[in-house]
Every structure is written in C-alpha cells, then in structure tokens.
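We emphasize that the prediction below concerns an isolated chain of 221 residues; any contacts that depend on oligomerization or on bound cofactors are therefore not represented. The input was used exactly as deposited, without trimming of termini.
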Amino acid sequence: MSRRFAQNFTWHEIHEVYDLAGSARNLAGQGDIEPTATIWTVAAPLAAKNTLIAMRWGLIPAWWSKSLGDLPPTFNVHARRLTEPIFLSAFKRNRCIIPASGYFEWKTAAPDKQPFYISAVDGGVLSIAGVWDEWNDIDSGAIVWSCSMIITSANEFMRPVHNRMPALLREKDFGPWLSGAAGAEVLRPADEDYLRMSPASSRIPQGGGGDDPTLITALAK
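Result of the prediction step, given as a token string:
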C-alpha cells in the first residue's frame, strides 16, 4: 500500500463517528502525509474514553533500545505480520483507528507512474485499523507516541492498481477493535462498492515531500 494519505476533516465530522471525549479542536488539514509525520489517531489508552491523539506515523516499540535510524520501516504492517515481535505487544494491548479522508496509490503506466486518490464513495472518513505504542526516547528522555497502519490484501476494485489496501474497519467493529475484544478477523478487504478512485495530480511526489491540499481538490468537489 502507498505511503501517502490525507487527513482533511473537521472535529465535527469525526466527533460523533468515534464518540470522542473532550472539547472541540481546530484540526488543520493535511493533504499529503508521509511516514514519520505527526498524524491524528483515535485510541482509548488505559481503558479511558475514545480520545483524539497526535502520534508519529511509524511505530516505535516500547522496548526499542537503539536509535531511530536503526528502526526498520513500520508505518504500515500487513495483518498477517502482527504477531512478529516488533508489532506483537502493540497488537495485544494498544489498538487505534487512523481516520483518513483518503489515500494515494500509484499504478505503473508508461512512461510514468500515475497517482490515484482513493476515498469513500459517500465522501465520509475512512477508518483504518492501527496499533500504537509509547516509547521513551533514549537520547532526550521524551515520551513518543507512535503508530502503524494495518494493511490487508486488496479487493477486486483495488487490485488493478495495487495488491494491498488499508484494513478499513466497519463502524460496528470500532469498539471491539479498540478494546481488544476483536482480533485479526475484522482486518479484511473493504466491500467492493465502498471506495471510489480518481486520477490525482502528477505533482504528488511519490518519494516524499510536500503537503498541498489542491492535489485532491478536484475530487472533493
């Protein structure tokens, strides 16, 4: 799955969806997010109420004792790899949901790779399953909250562009996923009629850099 996605939503648009605790916030939109950026997640730490929390996109396990430069890419993880050591403890005890307006994927086409923007047919927020952890920075002593996005095999709709896609949770699975009552059985491809896809601007840099909301303006209209 692509390493780029968007979070262009307001507090009002997600407050009731996730039954969020706390007062309203002014959420700045991000149209082109890349790994290690700070993103919004929904989690219920210590069995508290669902809370909107800013986290580093790229899981750092609590037990990690080396520098971040030695950490392998952890911005996403396939559902079948959640039992690997680097993700296992987070999968067992720290679940989250990553709200997304949509995500980008590239399809190889001569002579260039064409970017596509994938979002919900009804224009709503996508709820991507995730895991998170809390790490104590070995250099500064600061507490870092971080997360990984869970991916799964693509459905037929997405397969012509990519063989993987985010694990999109259904509303009835939000509570069980966050509490840990639900397991990998809810991490499955989206229904075939759930998503829409549109060519995105070729100005989107596949390798990284930039956050230009106009890249997806045409689709939002």
